[in-house]
Amino acid sequence: MALDDLASAFERFLAPIEAEMRAVVNAGTQPALFNIMLNYHLGFADEHGHAVSARAGKRIRPVLTLLSCEACGGDWRMALPAAAAVELLHNFSLIHDDIEDRDELRRGRPTVWKLWGEAQAINAGDAMFALSHLALLRCAEAGARPAQVVQALRVFDEMCVQLTVGQHLDLSFETRNDVSTEEYLAMIGGKTAALIAAACRIGALCADATEAHADALEQFGRGLGVAFQLQDDVLGIWGDPVTTGKHSSDLVHRKKTLPVIFAAERDPALRARYFDDLRPLSPEEVETIRARIERLGGRQYAESMAEQAYTQAVEALQRLPYTPAREALAALARALLNRQA
Questions:
Q1: Which of 17, 124, 221, 228 has its CB 3.0 to 4.6 Å from that of 197, i.e. a possible disulfide?
Q2: Helix (H, G, I), strand (E, B) or coil at 97
Q3: What is the DSSP letter of 110?
Q4: Whole-angstrom Cα distance, residue 37 to residue 178?
Q5: CB of 196 within 8 A of CB of 224?
């Protein structure tokens, strides 16, 4: 079945992705609470283990894997285990991020650590990490050659290292007042862009793509990942809370995102109040800081960098021959850049 548009891709792929993830997570005999924690975080169950229909997350990364496979002429079914692996790995990182960032809510529900404690949440995250690798190995059962599986595993594990390096940098920024725009961009290259880049390259590998096409898709994913994060930075300060679902601005939590860092590099008084003065920011101060960041060009800089990363991503994508899947990837990139939530 040919892809007509982006909506049709999601319509085709989401149910199989969910089914593959469930098959991996629920394989074998597990203690009841252990299984509940995994299914709860993924949005498959409530805290009592009862099935729920709400999906936890948009599943953008696994859809990218399947579209990348199709864009290289492959059968997306062969890449389905890899798509599940990418999403499970992403969710491992979220479980651990929630602990490290002390976030008590995710998608409107208590986080795993908030419900069951830090130790159990760390263990659940570790399980999700291991399960993501087992999911990727299922590519062999879907028809992938051993060499393809090994290649995919190497890309996957190299990405895992980049992901943790990015998180290391992000955590280190919390106690620093001298973070530069260059350092921030390097951090999101690991924490956000590396996973999206790997998702696209692994999809290409499942299609047995040429090195040139796999490289192009990896570059597309990397640019898309940077654009995605920078748009998130803008929404975290200027987005509509009703649309974004965030009840408070990133400024309230003193997050060091690109617009803030850019402005602070140009205004020592802003840097001192935001980075050094630990007194809570009043609502009036938040509004004043928001306006000052915009006047100093922080919003414009972040939006221009997002646009630049998006343009580079689309240019890389044009190195692939035209297919409906390639156009769906381009449409997804546009949708993510222009999103309001």
A1: 221
A2: helix
A3: E
A4: 39
A5: yes
Are residues 190 and 166 in contact, defined by beta-carbon separation less than 8 angstroms? yes
How many CB atoms are closer than 10 A to CB 17? 23
- Cα dihedral sign, 80-57-156-258: positive
Token pair in block for residue 307: 């646009």
For 202-224, letters b (16+ CB in 10 Å) and e give bbbbbbbbeeebbebbbbbbbbb
Are residues 91 and 18 in contact, defined by beta-carbon separation less than 8 angstroms? Answer: no
pLDDT score for 6:
84
DSSP result, 22-61: HHHHT-S---HHHHHHHHHHTTSB-TTS-B----SS--HH
The predicted structure's pLDDT at residue 3:
41
Per-domain boundaries in the chain = 6-337
> pTM of the predicted model, to two decimals?
0.94
Interval 280-301: pLDDT, tens: 999 999 999 999 999 999 999 9
pLDDT at residue 287, as a whole number: 95
The pLDDT, as a whole number, for residue 249 is 83
The CA–CA distances, whole Å, from 313 to 139, 168, 226, 257, 316 equal 27, 26, 10, 22, 5
Q: How far apart are CA 151 and CA 206, in angstroms?
A: 9
Q: Check residue 310 and give its pLDDT.
A: 97
Nearest to 160 by CA among 63, 85, 221, 51: 85
The confidence score (pLDDT) of residue 7 equals 87
Cα–Cα distance for residue pair 16/75, rounded to 1 Å: 14
In the chain, which residues have pLDDT < 50? 1-3
Q: Label residue 119 exposed, middle or buried (CB < 10 Å: 0-12, 13-18, 19+).
A: exposed
Domain 6-337 matching CATH 1.10.600.10: the answer reads yes
In single-letter form, the type of residue at position 244 comes to T
- The reported pLDDT for the residue numbered 244 is 66
Please name which of 330, 319, 251, 257 lies closest in space to residue 291, comparing C-alpha atoms.
Answer: 251
Distance CA 79, CA 200 (A): 11
State the Cα angle at 214 between 208 and 217, rounded to 5°: 130
